[in-house]
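Students often ask what a 'structure token' actually looks like in practice. Rather than answer in the abstract, let us consider HAD family phosphatase, a protein of 236 residues. Its sequence is given first.
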Amino acid sequence: MTSSIPAVDSRPATGPALQAVLLDMDGTLVDTEGFWWEVEVAVFAELGHQLLEEYREVVVGGPMSRSASFLIKATGARIALAELTALLNTRFAEMIGGGVPLMPGARRLLAELAAHSVPTALVSASHRQIIDRVLHTLGPQHFALTVAGDELTRTKPHPDPYLLAATRLGVDPARCAVVEDTLTGVTAAEAAGCRVVAVPSVAPIPPAAGRTVVGSLEEVDLPFLRRLIPARNYGV
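Now compare that with the structural description of the same chain:
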């Protein structure tokens, strides 16, 4: 399904400075980046190709179409992009059928956001079939909405997923805190105008203006997220 991005509401901001928290999934809330790489390595081995470890930093956090396209080009594998994408998603879905491990601090953070009725969205480059499986572990009740990578024409690193989530929640992107684990996701959130907390998983993420880099979700709680968006900017 393809979604368009409505214009962001430009009315004067009122109410709490922090309006919503938007969370990435793979590598941020659930420890699945290694699973994706394991599946990619196995599939390409069956195709007669060995993936170099250096490819991992290129494909991490990206949309399936971009990652699969890169791996086809890098290896010269004789497989169509659509076929490879479907194969990788199927294998990954099978691998996580029994559940996925949560990242340290993820369960506590989700519970805290829910307890304080903070609007929360799951914003992932993964496809809908993958998100729906992972939600069994995360708990769908923790999210007001979810955005999947195959539901937009452009996904991360473009800002569209975060703009769409903010629009559907009825909030200002500038008053949203985003938690991401890859530079691809951070780039998308910052382009949307959100304040970003980076929790690097596979590859390091350099510090930058307006960006907060931490070592683990265990360092992130609601007061921490609220401090990212000073109340004085919004007349509260």
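One point worth highlighting: The chain has a mean pLDDT of 89. Ask yourself how you might have guessed this from the sequence alone, and why that guess would often be unreliable.
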